Amino acid sequence: MLPLLERPAPGPARRATQEDDVLSHSDPATGLPVGPRAPRMSETATATAPAYTSEEILAAVLKSVDDDKAEDIVQIDLRGRSDVADYMVICSGRSSRQVAAISEKLVDRLKQDFRLHTKMEGKETGDWVLIDTGDVIVHVFRPEVREFYQLEKMWLPGSAHRGA
Question: Domain 54-162 class?
Answer without folding.
Answer: alpha beta
